[in-house]
Amino acid sequence: MNLQSLLAARIHAGKPIHVGLIGAGKFGSMFLAQIPAIAGLEVAVIADRDVERAKAACRTVDWEASRIARTHFAERGSAAIGDERVEVVVEATGDPVAGIAHAMAAIEAGKHVIMVNVEADALAGAYLARKARAAGVIYSMAYGDQPALITEMVDWARSSGFEVVAAGKGTKYLPAYHMVTPDSVWEHYGLTTAEAKAAGMNSQMFNSFLDGTKSAIEMAAVANACALDVPQDGLKFPPCGADELAHVLRPQTVGGVLDRDGMVEVVSSLQRDGSPVERDLRWGVYVVFKANSDYAAACFKQYGLPTDGSGRYAAMYKPFHLIGLELSISVLNVALRGEPTGTCRAWRGDAVAVAKRALKAGEMLDGEGGYTVYAKLVPAARSLAGKALPIGLAHHVELVRDVPAGEILSADDVALDDTLLAVRIRREMERTAEGGRQAAGETMAAE
């Protein structure tokens, strides 16, 4: 609550916070839009494969010509990481392989990392966070994106003395959406292909939001940051409005849909028949928590908190998020307080690739939001035991054997490139997790 006073001190000392932004897409552009309004915060370097697109993004968000002129533009992320002025690196490419490489380079260079790239975090966040801690720098989720906002709500609930029952977000979901491809995505958004093209909208990216992939990735990140459990066989996406959260998102033993307390889940803005949910939470985030005493439960009622029938389970929610427009909160927390706005603590959930249709050996997987696979959220232990292929490595890789529709792919089903840093890091993370589980099992056996 005192970021402004801390920032004022930096301004008074003549030490503005300099940021290196990697990726000038939608999220990056929204962040850039706010920079002129925040004294003491400067973007020193913008790295994007298309430098002219990055400059155009600055003009689109109304940067003055003088600000554009004093900003360094580059094609490679190394320019942002290597600039001696840069204190915080924002990775916003959306490419998990590139994101891991950028994060590792930044950590090795002694720079803090804001990981907008949740795909990279879901793939190897436990490894990256551990490396950052060892290097004395901060690896942080991106405030404004739903995972960081959920993490904040979980922290609020626990710090207030409540047990967290469930946490997550809303989305538009029907079971059939898992099979949607980029060819048919726009009809679900109420757009024509021509309208989407004119607006510069990427069909594969938008399809990743629809087919459940983005939800699996984001909830893996939340589970790993908040020490929450994930469903054994994927998110349930129960239809649920804001007023029903405390009733629906509680354990099955008391009438809800959860396997137990302490889980992540995504609620749908559509009933299973396609009709809209009343007061849906499509753009929002929530936390459901439980009173630890009769007195606390009575206070829930006295202060108008929405609860279940017992009065013990209550919910808080935020109906909207502003993604890149709020990203400066992460930058300021990291630079001024030395704190992340959420970070991976342990590997508990994994977003794994599932075949959208029967796949044949020799086919190339096209990753998140594509024609071949979607992501399912499963416990990390299940992923590890089955050698599941994470969705972050399911792009531009060739199948070496047939995979039936609806089956989770194994890393043995594809020809992974062992020279890729992301592949090597993921395998090291898996070996570390397997070693930890074996050690825990041996300790329990000895006891």
Describe the overall structure:
The chain has 447 residues and is α/β, with parallel strands linked by helices. 38% of the residues lie in helices and 17% in strands. The protein contains 16 helices and 14 strands. The protein has helices at 3-12, 26-34, 51-60, 65-69, 77-82, 96-108, 118-135, 146-159, 193-198, 203-210, 213-226, 245-248, 294-302, 328-337, 380-385, 421-446; strands at residues 17-22, 41-47, 72-74, 88-91, 112-115, 139-141, 163-171, 263-268, 285-290, 313-318, 349-355, 364-366, 373-379, 395-398. Strand 4 (88-91), helix 6 and strand 5 form a beta-alpha-beta unit. The chain is globular.
Characteristic key phrases:
3 domains, globular, 447 residues, single chain, alpha/beta, Rossmann fold, Type Iii Antifreeze Protein Isoform Hplc 12, 6-stranded parallel β-sheet
Produce a short descriptive summary.
Helix content is 38%, strand content 17%. With 447 residues, the chain is α/β, with parallel strands linked by helices.
